[in-house]
Amino acid sequence: MAAAQLVRGRGxxxxxxxxxxxxxxxxxxxxxxxxxxxxxxxxxxLSTAGSWANGKRFKAGDALVFKYDSSAHNVxxxxxxxxxxxxTPRGAKVFKSxxxxxxxxxxxxxFICNFPGHCQAGMKLAVTAA
Length: 130
Fold this sequence. Notes:
By secondary structure, the chain is α+β, with helices and mostly antiparallel strands. It has helices spanning 2-31, 80-85, and strands at 35-37, 63-67, 75-78, 93-95, 99-103, 107-112, 124-129.
C-alpha cells in the first residue's frame, strides 16, 4: 500500500510541475510581445504610413501605437476590401484619440485613415503578424 501511495504522490508532483512549466511558457510568450510606434518619431501621417512596416517582423500579440493629430487623422481597422478600396466597412473599429494602441491578430491586419482623401493619398498600412 505504501508503494501505491508513493507512485500516486509522484504522479501528482509531475502533473503539478508540468502545469507550472506550462504557465511559465505561456507567460514568456506574452512577455515577448513588442510595441511598435507606427511611423516611428514621425507618427501616423500622410508621409509616414506607406513603407513604415517594410523590413519589420511582427507577431500576433505585438502592439502598434498610432500617434497623430486627432483633428487631422484617425485610424480605422478594416478588412482587405476596405484597405484596397479605401472604405470603412460598417462595424469597423475607428480610433480617434491621437494615441491609440492596437494589438495585432495573427494574419494580415489592415488600417486606414478615413478622413477624405487620406487613404487614397497613401495613408494606409497592412501589417502581417506571424
